[in-house]
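Quick start: read one record
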Amino acid sequence: MGISILILTLDEEANLPQCLASVSWSDDVVVLDSCSTDATREIAIKSGARVIQRPFDNYANQRQYGLTEIPFKYRWVLMVDADEVVPPELADEMQSSVAECSDSVVLFRMRRRDMLMGRWIRGSSGYPTWFGRLVRIGRVTVERDVNEEYQADGDVRLLNEHLVHYPFNKGIHAWFEKHNRYSSMEAKLALERMASAIRWGDLLRRDPQARRKVLKEVLYRMPARPLIVFFGLYILRGGFLEGRAGLTFCVLRAVYEFMIDCKVRELQLRRAGMPL
């Protein structure tokens, strides 16, 4: 059974060739481009991929558009970002999994290996985090503007192999630009979360996404959250064992969390009619 590929792009000429090469085993590759101004579109066309352009509004809408408005050759679609690579062992596992699973299975989740300075930053990145990426068309919806959540109307399975993620390959400046956008979206969602009750019972669920969501809601209510995140990743999760790469990532992650907190406070003041 075949698998179609959906790649989201925005000015990804630095990353896209490696990503496309890693999914060349599929004969149905679609690049959903957010109107790039570099050579992204030309690279995709040259590789044989179909290119569809849609102005970006948020990540959930972009993925949902891809799943509902684009016709695919196969009923299973793997969604990858341009800065991710699909190793051969993951490709083999996905193909065998969709061929053998029952009709009740609609979503496969997988983990990523985040790379920085040539090494896997396992502790610093907070590994493992499970991502819903291999979906059965028509059975999964995407929610949440950033760091999306996948709602499945059937069974969910976990894969053993990993995606490989190169979040800094476009440069540190690009990471800051992207996370400036992310932090604005997260700040709006954080205000909504703080206004709702925490679903403590979800901590007992087998679904790792549900447990992670509760822990995130708790963390957003804690004072000095950026420092807590740094301490947790660098000390408790062993980021200090990963050298300069580990320290760099943990500091950047704390900065990102601080950006979110600053923007949450800004939104609170604006809504109260007060100057920043």
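The longest helix spans residues 243-271.
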